[in-house]
Predict the 3D structure of the following.
Amino acid sequence: MRLLVVEDESRMAELLKAALTRAGFIVDTVTLCADARAALATTRYDAAILDLGLPDGDGIELLGELRSGGNQIPIIVLTARDTIDDRVCGLDRGADDYLVKPFAPAELIARTKALLRRPGSALGTTLKAGNVTFDTIGRDARIGDVWLLLARRESAILEHLMRRVGRVVPKSVLEETLYGIGDELESNAIPVHVHHLRRKFAEAAATAQIHTVRGVGYLLVESKT
Amino acid sequence: MTRDWFGSLQLRLALRVAALYIAATVVVIVVLMSRAYDTARSLSDGELMLRATALAKYVSVGPNGVPRLDLRVSAAYDVPSVTDIFAIRDAGGRVIAASPPQFGDLVAAWPRATDEPVRFSVRLENEPDRYNGLNIKLDSGAGPLSISVARSNESATGAYLLLRKFIHDVLWAVSFLVLASLAFGILAIRSGLKSVRGVSEMASAIGPHATAVRLPDKGLPSEIRPLVIAVNRALDRLEQGFAVQRKFTANAAHELRTPLGIITVALDAMEGNGELIKVKADVERMNRLVDQLLRVAQLDAIALDVSGTTDLNDIARGVVATMAPWALTLERTIAFGGPDVPVNIKGNGHAIADAIRNLVENAVLHSPARTEVMVSTHTDGTLSVIDQGPGILAADRQRIFDRFWRGKGVKTPGAGLGLSIVQEIMKMHDGRVAIEDGPEGGSVFTLHFTLAARPPLSGT
């Protein structure tokens, strides 16, 4: 997967490139808006990481320009400015995510991966968390080499959790999904399905766990090594 | 807008004007009346004098050498009405003639009259009225006489009648005039102060988020213009100050975060011994401190728009969802509980989320491992964060909100800015933070918001 990093701070660009490369991405870096425009016009990138304060213009302008030109490339905005107005403005102009400096590279990588997993993106058909894998096309899940036998609803829940590893999936989102899969939904249906998933995870010695955030939803995290 | 009526300039002016009017009116009436009574009295004195002189003319020496009053005059006085009375005494003090006779009896005891007329006032037996009259010594055909003439109060002379009517009319006219001019005066005060009122209403709209407003100084009374001009100048400086502060905050944010960001990313790439882990923790702490300092500076410099309406449930659920993964890495859990219906409050969703985030962060950091931090909302517009930590000493509950204050022996990272940020945000929302002991130890931080009258137009 190819990423474009637009960052004028050379040291930062260098470090980001190193971190993202270690995470398995192919990274190009540019320092100017103009260069970014040229790069995006000639090369197919899977996502772009855009710093807002650039020497030849504001990243926000570039973002607006790209979006109004119909470019739907996933973009994560990086900034040192974090007033609420800045944040809202960035998301309004079409940023997919927003990270305030300083941030841990792991966070940037996780968010980039999350963006690439989103529907609409052809990539990321196999989701991974620990030794758990989920094929979004074949709709089958494995833990290590063991195939999991999942009910339709269980596999739908697992897919949502795996698409957002490390982040909370609201219960309402899961409920909506399950409504789509026929039948009436009992009030305790989701806890029951999650319970089943957990049992199957435990039986197969999964290195990922499903946690409950009471009153909000569920999240899947990789076990600490 | 409610106005403090007793402090109002209008009322003060109106009261003073009214007092002035009433005092002036009383003085005018008293002066008028005393002058009028003086005139009336001298008129009636003149009339009595004329009668006394007329009576004296008709006194002559009778055939028996005794002075007597012409019988025709006596007859003229001999009518049932007793409005006019008189008594005539000769030089020896003997009563020559009197009408009615009991007046003569009364007068007989009086000293003789002198050349200077003396006023008197008597009451006769069997007569309801009081009589006012003159005692005067007059020469006549029968030598000097003491003549006493009087007239009843009731049948006052024309002068008194006129006077009474005059006073009656004047009192009405004056009170009407006073009321009318008072009303006119108040209207004049109101219209005169209208421009001032307009300016003060504009001034009340000025706040940190509306620093561009300037008060118009056109059409204002010259006493107030200098004040308004001075206020406008102060506003200029204030706005400038805010702008400088905003710019500084934004620059500081950029300048501080860029190198910190580089260090954070660079350290992350390094593999190393225990020392490196410590340095990473130090940088983490520095990041947090800078972040909170900037947040404090922003809250000071940038006015928050708190006019929106937002669902407290949504915000709290969002914060819990964002922070739950972080809490999990520390082996704590966060839970949310709230009513099924939205809790719509007035305020800025982002700032409120910030406040809740700070409370949850504190709660998680101060709780023992494998415990739960509970965030709950209530239909009365409150939100509480309950932890299982050591609790807050009653003595510390006030100081805990001071900037840079930290509990004794606290080992958690942080600069002691979180709670001051929470309090600042609550102040901006006209709300407050309360601290109580938790039901099972620990502490409960409760945020009190104002419920919104209507639901939000869109999601947060």
Observations:
- DSSP finds eight helices and 14 strands in chain A.
